[in-house]
Amino acid sequence: MVLKFYASQFVAAGNGIVALALAEKQVAFEFVPIDMAAKEHKTEEYMAMNPFAQVPAINDDGFAMYESRAICRYLDERFAGQGATLVPKGMKGRAVVEQAISVESMSFAPPLSKVVMELVFKVHRGLAPDQALADEGLKEISDKLDVYEVILAKHKYLAGDDFTLADLVHYAYAPMLGENGVDIMTAKERPNVARWWNELMSRPTWVKLKAEGMKSTV
Amino acid sequence: MAILKLHGGKQATCTRRVATVLHELQVPFELIEVDVANGAHKSPEYLKIQPFGQIPYIDDDGFLLYETRAICRYIAAKYPEYGLIPTEPKANALFEQAASVELTNFDPSASKAGLQLWIRKMGYPFPTDDKIIADNLETLEKKLDAYEAILSKQRYLAGETITLADIFHLPYGVFVTYAGSESDSVMNRASRPNVARWYKQLISRPSWLAYLDGVTTTTAY
């Protein structure tokens, strides 16, 4: 049975990173859209798959799971030997990737979500953004990116010279910034971050995913 | 081979999380206290090792690593016989699912409310906010309803045996109970008997009890 990928239509957040991981691992899958506006994520059937009523989820021939970061790790193992290697096998190489993944979750994502809420979500819905909150978030992101600048001076990607899951998790929300006129990821003062981010934004799998959107491969 | 060095704070939340896991895995370690009160974690020498200026980090015979969860994962992988990270692919995936649940569904609200409640309990001279505590505890209550559904079917979050995913709920899982009493708190409600059962199992583990008064160098078990 072909892998089923349950997600919303938007190439962003957890949906976006799993869609990208599926592309990176060259996995054949059936896209099952979950319409959150129609509360399809709150049905008993869906909540049996994900008790947190969140997207995305996958069902790999009867093995069901949720949480996008966990799904990406599973896909990397399950389809090892095809497509990109998202997490290296050696103990120390893996630890350094985990270190960088943890930095994204704990240091980068929280201030980013503040900025996205104010400058993307609210603006899209015609609500007035709280500029003070947005500025607070932007300052925090900037401080963290100053550290990324130091890290990225040493190697091409966050955990070394190869693209890994640590880079992939950054596709969840940060692309929305540039799309909405917030150019913090490509600021000239941080040439290494700009180089890295431009690499990520021009990665062929991402470009194709953004152009074609969420769709089954079969 | 040199003893593992844990650079952090005796009472610091994330240092305690790492120490708990080191204890679970019976790994001898030396606590090296970082003088955070005097900004030692922001010195140029410190930033060379931990560029975000945070604690803790470990020095495992010359291998330096930071980020609590990455440290815990690395140590757990060194001692797979304890099963804190299952290796069989599907069991591993279910562990990752549970670890991600802790990260995205528990930690955001538990750490915000927990940190404030811990500051109040310890009497540290920092401002706290009733609304932040209340709002985050409310979010947490809803998340724990999903935990109740999961834990009604299995003993621990990833299956029948304890994994890092459960242990990652310490110490914030304890701090959030400071808003209630021993018999009734967000982690211990009559309405969520399975969460209460699981929580009580966590806090009765020797690895948690060992550092109730703070982390200390542990050379023997």
From TrEMBL, chain A:
It comes from the Eukaryota. Residues 2-83 form the GST N-terminal domain. One of its GO terms (biological process) is glutathione metabolic process. GO terms for molecular function: glutathione binding; glutathione transferase activity. The keyword Nucleus does not apply. Pfam families: GST_C, GST_N. Keywords: Transferase. It catalyses: RX + glutathione = an S-substituted glutathione + a halide anion + H(+). Residues 90-218 form the GST C-terminal domain. One of its GO terms (cellular component) is cytoplasm. It is an enzyme of class 2 (transferase). The keyword Transferase applies. Its EC number is 2.5.1.18. Belongs to the GST superfamily. Phi family. This is glutathione transferase.
Automatic annotation (TrEMBL), chain B:
Coiled coil: none annotated. It comes from the Eukaryota. Residues 2-83 form the GST N-terminal domain. Pfam families: GST_C, GST_N. Its EC number is 2.5.1.18. It catalyses: RX + glutathione = an S-substituted glutathione + a halide anion + H(+). GO terms for biological process: glutathione metabolic process. One of its GO terms (molecular function) is glutathione transferase activity. Keywords: Transferase. One of its GO terms (cellular component) is cytoplasm. Residues 88-221 form the GST C-terminal domain. It is an enzyme of class 2 (transferase). Belongs to the GST superfamily. This is glutathione transferase.
